[in-house]
Every structure is written in C-alpha cells, then in structure tokens.
Task: inverse folding
C-alpha cells in the first residue's frame, strides 16, 4: 500500500482513512503492504491500522525484514493483526512455505534489536534518495517526464514522446502489446537496460492506463546506475521533437 508500486507514493493519513472507512463499510479485509516502512522520504509514515479501532480490526499489516535491511534474499517477513485474522495467515504460511530458515530468523531478530538500526534506517534513506537523484539526471537530460517517489526506489517514466525505429523488429508476442511493452523490449534488447511495462500493474481491462509508462528502479550500485545512464543516452535517437515535453519531477 505504501510506498505504492509503481509510483513510490506514500499515502497520507486522510487518504488511508478514506480507504479504511470504505473497507469497514463494505466489510473488506485490508492487507496493508508496508514492506517499505523504513524507506520513505516523508516526515512521517502513516499506518492504516492506527487510524481507528474499526479499521485495525480488519487489517493485516505486512512487513519485510529483507526490504528493511536490504537483504531480500533472506525471505523473512512478518504479519501483524488480530488473532482471528492472523490464524488464517498462519495456516497459509504452513501450507505454502512451512518455515523460514532458522539462521535468517536469528539474524532478523538481532538486526531489530541492534541499537544501530535507527542510524542504519536514516543512512539508508539518504543513500537511496541520492541514487534516485543520480538516475533521474538522465531522464531530465532526455526530456522525459517522471514521478519522483516519496518512498521506496521506483521511478515511473512517461515514454509517450519516444518512437521506435520503423526498422526494429519485435517478437510476435510483443508486437501485439502496447508501447510500454515494446519500449521495454527495445531498451533491454538494444540498450541493455531493463524496465517493467506500466500496464503490467493493471488488470487487463485497464491496461491501456499504463501503456505510456515504464518503471525503473534505483536499487543498484552507483556503478550500475552510471552505466544505465550512459546506455539510456541511446533513447535520444527515439525522441520525437514535435512531442518534446518540459521535464517534470512530479513528487508523490
């Protein structure tokens, strides 16, 4: 839920309250994805379960040790909620993954208990904010519009000013899809930079809403980000001059 993927948006208390109240009114269970709870660039990080007892009673909050400590390979997470909800999560966990490796659980506990963790969280926010800034330099140079995330490390970019070369051949499966898939394939195949098509974040019937966007991430080494910036210079040849837009850093 926050930080939203692919926008990197951190929802305000008012926005979360409107969602929560709707769920209470419609008797809907809330799965609050809060795996980026420690990677936000806003003064506070609102949590939907804290907004009212009625909302809390139907909320399962999901956290991730791997995301929090930049160790996603650990596959360690947790769920918080009322007993009548958590018991169903426990059964699902037993049936799907059974157990998380013991050493990873011990490491997770030690990390949270370490008093240096708060310092790590602050440093990590500074680190990723800088990585995002560095990556966005090439987007500004290309004149592409994008959303500047208020959490996580996603960068959603508008590709509507780009045009594929008429001579570029696409696989049959890609040629039937929108420009977001075609441009993602081109960048991966020709430039060596991967992205996720914007329509992949929508249901099929609403896929057209994402076809003007691709999503990049800045969770890479500085060397990899600089290499990506160099390779993305190849997009300059695809920019349609008549469609050039003023660069926009839309903060969420």
Result:
């Amino acid at each position: 839920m926050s930080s939203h993927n692919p926008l990197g948006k951190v929802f305000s208390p008012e926005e979360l309250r409107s969602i929560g109240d709707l769920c209470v009114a419609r008797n809907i269970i809330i799965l609050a994805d809060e795996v980026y709870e420690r990677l936000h660039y806003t003064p506070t990080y609102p949590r939907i379960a804290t907004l009212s007892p009625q909302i809390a009673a139907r909320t399962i909050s999901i956290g991730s040790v791997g995301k929090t400590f930049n160790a996603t390979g650990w596959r360690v997470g947790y769920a918080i909620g009322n007993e009548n909800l958590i018991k169903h999560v426990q059964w699902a966990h037993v049936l799907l993954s059974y157990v998380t490796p013991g050493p990873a659980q011990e490491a997770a506990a030690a990390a949270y208990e370490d008093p240096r963790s708060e310092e790590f969280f602050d440093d990590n926010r500074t680190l990723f904010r800088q990585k995002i800034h560095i990556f966005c330099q090439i987007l500004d140079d290309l004149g592409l519009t994008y959303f500047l995330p208020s959490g996580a490390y996603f960068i959603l970019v508008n590709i509507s000013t780009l045009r594929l070369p008429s001579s570029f051949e696409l696989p049959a499966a890609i040629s039937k899809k929108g420009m977001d898939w075609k441009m993602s394939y081109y960048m991966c195949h020709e430039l060596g930079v991967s992205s996720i098509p914007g329509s992949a974040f929508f249901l099929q019937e609403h896929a057209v809403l994402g076809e003007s966007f691709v999503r990049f991430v800045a969770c890479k080494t500085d060397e990899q980000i600089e290499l990506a910036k160099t390779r993305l210079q190849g997009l300059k040849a695809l920019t349609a001059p008549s469609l050039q837009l003023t660069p926009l850093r839309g903060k969420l």
Summary: The chain is about 40% helix and 15% strand. The first strand starts at residue 30 and ends at 33. The two ends are 13 Å apart (CA to CA).
